[in-house]
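Lab notebook: predicted structure, single chain.

Context: the supervisor wants predicted structures on file for every construct in the current expression panel, including those that have not yet been purified. This is the next one on the list. No modifications to the sequence; it matches the entry in the shared construct table.
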Amino acid sequence: MFCRRLFQRVLHPSLRYLLRYLLVGAVLLMPAWAQAFEPFVVKDVRVQGLQRVDAGTVFGYLPFKVGQKFTQRDADESVRRLYASNLFNDVNVGTEGNVVIVTVAERPTVASITFSGMHEFESKTIVAELAKVGFAEGRIFDQSALDQAETELKQQYLGKGLYSTEVNATVTPLPRNRVGIAFDIFEGARAKIRGIHFVGNKAFSTSTLMDQVDMSTPGWFTWYTDTDKYSRERLEADVDRVRSFYLNHGYLEYSNEPPQVTISPDRTSIYITISIHEGKPYKVRSVKLAGNMLGLDAELKKLVTVKPGTVFDASQTNKTAKAITDYLGELGYAFANVNPSPQLDRAKHEADLTFYIDPSRRVYVRRIQMAGNTRTRDTVIRREMLQQEAAWYDSNQIRQSRDRIDRLGYFTSVGVKTEPVPGSPDQVDVNVNVKEKPTGMVNLGVGYGSADRAIFQAGISQDNLFGSGHNVSFNVGTSSVQSSAVLSETDPYFTKDGISRTVSVYYRLTRPWLADSGQYMVRTLGAGLNFGVPITDTDRIFMGATVERNTIGLYGNNSPLSYTNYVNTYGTTTNALILNTGWSKDTRDSALSPTRGAYTKLSADVGTVGLKYGMLSAQQQYYIPLSRSYTLAFNGLANYGFAYGGKPFPVIKDIYGGGLGSVRGYSSSSLGPRDQNTGDYLGGQRMLAASVQLYLPVPGTGHEGTLRWFLFADAGQVAPTSSIPGSTGCSSGTYSNSYGFTISDPCAWRFSAGVGLSWQSPIGPLQISMGKALNSKPGDNKEAFQFQIGTAF
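Prediction complete. Output recorded below exactly as produced.
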C-alpha cells in the first residue's frame, strides 16, 4: 500500500501513464520472450484459429517468408503487426522445428445494429453517420469504436437540442464469432430556447434583429413551428441572416463572436447570446467593372444596379453579380465568375466597388443525360429541356428546363449539373438527376363547409400513367346540395410542340332544397375535349368543346317559379354544345401560399344548339411582398353572361356570389335576385367582386409560410343582364307566400371586412374567416363565421 501511494505521489501523471504502457506491452510480448530460440531458416508457416480472416491476410502482415531466416526479432515484430491490424484479440507466435506456428483469436464482427426508443431520427440516417466514424455492420468489433459511436450518437442529439438524451449500448454474442449491437435510447425532453440576447447592437434594436432570425422563445404557435427548439444548424443559419442584414445596410466591418449557448442545470432551457461588432455604415463612392468583358462593356454596365452615393447593399451587389453571371451563361460561358470586391476608405466610410469579371471559356453542350427515372420515360423529361445538344450552353434555358421538369410533379427532387468533358475544354455534359415519387393516389375524404355542410369525396388518380406523362383521374363527391363524378385524362404533349389535350366525362346532380321539401333538382351529364397551347413558360391559350345534357325535375306544388318558367321555355331536357376558349398567365411563386407574382385568366364560353348563351369571365390576382413575412394581395373577378336566339338566359347557367371566394360575411351564393315563389337564390348573369387582403405571420411562428392570418375587405355585386322570368329581379319588396321573405336592393354592391386564418395543414387546406357585412340590407342572409376544411385518410 505504501509503495502504491509513493508511486502515485512521486511520479508525474504522464510518467505513470508511460510506465503502465510499457508494463502492458511487456506482458503482451512475454509469450514470445518465453519461447526464445536460435535463428533458423523457415521451412513452413502455419496459421491456427482463423474463422473469417483469410490466411493470406495474416501472411501479408508477417515480416518474413518461407526460405528466409527467422529470428526472435521477427517473432516480436510479427506479434506487433498482427495486434496493430485490429483483427485479433490474441496473437501467439511459436515454433516447431523449422516451422513457424501463428495462433490467433479473431475479434468478432458486427452483425447487426439496432435502435430502440429513437424517434427523432430515421435509423438509416444514424447508421450512415456512425459509418463515418468507422462503426458499421460487417466491420470488426472494437470497444473503442463502440465508445466513439455512442459519442457520435449523443452529438447528433445535441445538435437537435436534446441534451438529456441517454444512450446505452448492449453487445450480444452471436454464432460464428459475431456480435449484435443494440442501442437503447432515452431521448428525453427537447431543450427549449428561453432567451435570445444580442450584445453590442446600437444601430438596430434587439426586436429588429429578432425579426431576422427564425428561432424564438416559446409562444402560442411554437408547438406547430418548433422555432423554440434549439438546433446547431438553425443557430448557424440565424447568425448568417443577421450578418446578411447588416451587410445589406452597409455595415461592411460587421463581425460577430461565436454564439454563446448555455443550458440550465436541468437541461431543459437554453439561453443564446450573440455578441456583435457593428462598425459604421459605408456608402458606395464608385462602381467599376474590370477584367475580361469580351467587348460587352455597354451590355454589362446596364446590368449594374448599384449606384454611387447610395448605402452599400450586399443583396443588391450580389444581385448584380448574378445578373452578369447569368448573362454570360446565356452566351455559352458556363464557368463565368464575377467577384465583387469593395475597397474600404475607413476614414470617410466609403467604398469603391469593383466587379472583377472572368468569363473563362465558351462551351457547348455535348450530351444531355437522364438519371434516376426508373419508371418515367426519358422522352417525358427530355421534352421539357429547352437546352439542346450540340448547341451553345445557355444557363437561362437550363434553369428554365429544371423548373419545367420540377413542375411536372413526378419527382421529389430535380437536380441539373454541368460537368466538363475530359479532354475537351469547349464541351460540357448536362446531367439531369431526378428522384421519382409515387404519382398514383387513392384517397378518401371527408370535410365540412359552412354552406354545403358535410362533404364526402373519393378519388383515384395517376399523374404519370405507365411513365408516359399522361394524367388519369376519377373523382366522386357528395354533399347536402350537390353530388358529382368526374373522369378525365390529360396528355400534356398531345403534339411535340407541347399542346395538351384533356378528355373528360362528368355527372352532376344539384338538389338545393331536396332535403327540406323536395321541390326541384338539376341533373347534368357532359363530356368535353379541351386543348392547351403554351405560348411561354407562364402563358397558355386553351380552347375546347363540351357536349352537355341537362334534365330538370320539378316536385310538389311549390316549385321555384324561375325553374318552372325555364322548363316551359326550354323543356325538361336540353342538349347543348358549349365552346370555350381563353388565356391564362401565372407568375406566382406558389399556387398554395403565394407571396409574390400575379395570376391572370380570361375565358369565354358560348352555348349552342339547345342552350344559346355566352359567358365572359376574367380574374386578376396580384401578390406584393411588403417584407419577408407580410404580403399584400389583390383579387378581382368579373363575369358577364348574355343570351341570343330570342330566349332568356338559362337560369341553370347563372353565376353566384357571396361567401368564401367572393364576399365574405354573407352566406354562400346568397347575393343577387331570388325566386318570387320560394325565395331560392338564383344568382345572376353578371358578377363583379374585388378583394384586398393583407397576410401577416401568426405570432410565434416566425416566417412560417403555410400558416398565416389576414385582414380583408371584400366588395361584390350579382345582378341580371336581362330579365329572369319568375325572379324578383333587382326590385325590393316583401313576398307573402308559403315561405315569405323580404328582399331589399338585391343587385346593389355589398361590402364586408374582417379577419381570417389560412393554413396548409397536414390534413388538408383550411380557411377560416370572421367577416362583418358593412352595408347589409333587409332580407340579406349574413354569416359572420365561415370555414372550409378537407381531410384525407
